[in-house]
C-alpha cells in the first residue's frame, strides 16, 4: 500500500498526528536520543518592545508569522492579532516552543515531546500534564512599537 493510500485509510486526524509531529524536525527520542534545545529557567519580569518596522520584526508583517526574542515567541496570528508565549515549554522546560497554523488554526507547540497549546496557553494534549504555557500580554503603542509584558 502506498503511503498516501495508507494515510487516507487512517483518516485526516491520525494523518495529521503522524505527519505534524515531524514537520519541524523530529528532534527527540530519535535513534541517537539527541534533543534539540536546552532546558532553560522561565524568565521573570518580561517587559520589552519591538519596532514593528524593524528588520527583526519582518516575520510579523504576515498573519501566521512569528519571531523569537528574549525567550518569548511573538506571533501575528491568523486573525492579525499579536500574541506572545514563553519559549520555555511547560512540560520539561525546553526552549523549543514555536507557532504553527495546521488546518488554519494557530497553536503553540514543542516538538521535544509533542506538547501542543492553544493561543491562551491551554494544553491541547496530555503531554504537558495539564500545565499551561505561559502567555504574555501584548499592546501596540505609538509609532508601531509592540510591547510584550507580564500583566
Ligand atoms: S519539553 Fe516540550 S514537550 Fe517536553
From TrEMBL:
MF term (GO), any: metal ion binding
Assigned keywords, A-Z: 2Fe-2S, Iron, Iron-sulfur, Metal-binding
Gene3D superfamilies noted in UniProt: Rieske [2Fe-2S] iron-sulphur domain
Protein origin, superkingdom: Bacteria
Limits of the Rieske domain: 49-147
Keyword Methyltransferase attached: no
Xref: InterPro entries: Rieske_2Fe-2S, Rieske_2Fe-2S_sf
Keyword Metal-binding annotated: yes
Full protein name: Rieske (2Fe-2S) iron-sulfur domain protein
Taxon lineage: Bacteria, Pseudomonadati, Bacteroidota, Flavobacteriia, Flavobacteriales
Amino acid at each position: 500500500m502506498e503511503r498516501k493510500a495508507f494515510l487516507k485509510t487512517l483518516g485526516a486526524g491520525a494523518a495529521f498526528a503522524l505527519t505534524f509531529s515531524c514537520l519541524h524536525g523530529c528532534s527527540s527520542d530519535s535513534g541517537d536520543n539527541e534533543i534539540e534545545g536546552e532546558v532553560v529557567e522561565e524568565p521573570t519580569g518580561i517587559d520589552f518592545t519591538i519596532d514593528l518596522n524593524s528588520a527583526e520584526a519582518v516575520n510579523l508583517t504576515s498573519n501566521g508569522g512569528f519571531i523569537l526574542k528574549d525567550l518569548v515567541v511573538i506571533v501575528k496570528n491568523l486573525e492579525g492579532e499579536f500574541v506572545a508565549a514563553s519559549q520555555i515549554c511547560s512540560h520539561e522546560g525546553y526552549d523549543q516552543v514555536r507557532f504553527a497554523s495546521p488546518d488554519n488554526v494557530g497553536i503553540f507547540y514543542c516538538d521535544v515531546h509533542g506538547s501542543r497549546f492553544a493561543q491562551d496557553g491551554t494544553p491541547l494534549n496530555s503531554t504537558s500534564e495539564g500545565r499551561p504555557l505561559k502567555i504574555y500580554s501584548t499592546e501596540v503603542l505609538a509609532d508601531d512599537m509592540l510591547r510584550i509584558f507580564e500583566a
